[in-house]
Amino acid sequence: MSTGDTGGEPGQGMLPADPDAPGQQPVATAGSEELTEPVRPAAPKRQRAASIPDGMLTVEDHLEKILRGIGPLAAYDQPLVESLGLPLHEDFVAPMDLPLFDNSAMDGYAVRAEDIASASRQRPVTLPVVGEISAGSAKPFAISAGTAVKIMTGAPIPRGADSVIPYEQTDRGNARVQIFAPTTPGQCIRRKGDDVRSGETVLTEGAVLGPREIGLLAALGAPRVKSRPRPRVVVMSTGSELREPGTHLDYDSINDGNSYMLAAAVRAAGAICYRVGAVDDKPRTFQRVLSEQLVRADLVVTSGGISKGDHDVVKQTLSALGTVEFNEVAMQPGKPQGFGRVFDEQTPIITLPGNPVSAYVSFEVFVLPAIRRMMGRTPYRRPMVHAVLAADLQSRPGVRQYVRAVFEVTHRGAKVTPLSGSGSHLVGTLAKANALIIVGEDQTALNLGDTVRTLVLDRPF
Ligand SMILES: Nc1nc2c(c(=O)[nH]1)N[C@H]1C(S)=C(S)[C@@H](COP(=O)(O)OP(=O)(O)OC[C@H]3O[C@@H](n4cnc5c(N)ncnc54)[C@H](O)[C@@H]3O)O[C@H]1N2
Ligand code: MOO
């Protein structure tokens, strides 16, 4: 069984998230430069799976709305280490050779190979040592025929020398050195430009900067590099029942797990998170806290308060603005969703359901792609992996199920085992899962042994 990535979730071919899609159009973020990211023009209305309940959006509909509404952030020069995990915004052309100059690969003596051609243990060649060159304290140096210069690893090769003989093949003499072996021109010399040539494109636009790339950029003298910044994501949870973990709980209150879970998920996605403690269900409080947070937000993510309850503060408050739309999405968990822009800043906001598993799955499906798009990272969506199902599964028709599961690779290939319990409150089960099995809208059962589509969580992509 293959563990091969098979692209994003079902229907991805129709999504704007496809970076290779033809006909891509610029997308602008409010207040930022015009951006030329790979988003398709509005796709012609596609056929809905027959089973999607009327009035509901498909997962693709909602994701597309979000991705069209949130553009990439403007790129600017970032300090090198800050750019870890960010994609390079433009090709990087080496401004210098690496190595920058011919230098020694060993501690030893720079010599002319022809002067020691006859050297052996029995009949060493003795040369006068006319100086010493160490890395970082070398003066321009030249040697004449029949002489040697002490040289340390990394130090520039003196003019006239064509090879380095390591200490181990000498008596390590100071004024004079006995050399026990011959060498050939070029031995133990690291040549200028034999690693990187000045003018060479060493990293191309879109390359994600990891430790090795950052090391190379520093070696090439770049203290900063142009990339899109990490999005600043404000995470707010709402609910008068919520308490800060570690504080007193009344008989009807619970710990605010979601803001921590979402904050961690934001960070794991490579963004900066500002976690706001839980806000109660009063519209005025919610509106005030939200507006105070916008100064540091490229994106706001809320949890809770968007369903049909009497105190669904997020929905009540933001519906009134008219710029945030609330919908039901044909998925489980994660049915209630909202997206739009808020206040004068027109800051994008994604409102997630409060049930913890629903909030988590919704983050995976909608917020993670949005964050990646803001950072300029592709693909936006987590690639799926095929795995063999280890137990039967039932599912409701008309909704896409995301089933918590354990994914493992055994000697027989990739296997995924669904965890029991589908309640959206089951955080214990959620923490046991490392994968989500996707059961399509038209599927009502999957059987043991079937090959199923799986999102393997936490894997870098
Ligand atoms: N009459 C209906 N009721 C509900 C429907 C529906 O269609 N009709 N949908 C259900 C579904 S599905 C979901 S999901 C939830 C979503 O509700 P909200 O987004 O309004 O979330 P809340 O009501 O605020 O909270 C739901 C649940 O989650 C707990 N919660 C909320 N925030 C946190 C947090 N930060 N940390 C931990 N737990 C949290 C909260 O206490 C509730 O138990 O609505 C269903 N209802
Ligand atoms: O659809 Mo809700 O998101 O199950 O719990």
UniProtKB/TrEMBL annotation:
Where does this protein come from, organism-wise?
Aeromicrobium wangtongii
Stated family: Belongs to the MoeA family.
Q: Where is this region: Disordered?
A: 1-53
Q: What does this protein do?
A: Catalyzes the insertion of molybdate into adenylated molybdopterin with the concomitant release of AMP.
Q: What is its EC number?
A: 2.10.1.1
Q: Which NCBIfam families match?
A: Glp_gephyrin, molyb_syn
Q: Which reaction does it catalyse?
A: adenylyl-molybdopterin + molybdate = Mo-molybdopterin + AMP + H(+)
Pathway field: Cofactor biosynthesis; molybdopterin biosynthesis
Cofactor(s) needed for function: Mg(2+)
* Name the UniProt record assigns to this protein: Molybdopterin molybdenumtransferase
Give the coiled coil ranges.
Answer: none
Q: Name one Pfam family in it.
A: MoeA_N
Annotated ranges, domain MoaB/Mog: 234-373
Keywords in alphabetical order: Magnesium, Metal-binding, Molybdenum, Molybdenum cofactor biosynthesis, Transferase
Compositional bias, Gly residues, is annotated for 1-11
Matches recorded under InterPro entries: MoaB/Mog-like_dom_sf, MoaB/Mog_dom, MoeA-like, MoeA_C_domain_IV, MoeA_C_domain_IV_sf, MoeA_linker/N, MoeA_linker/N_sf
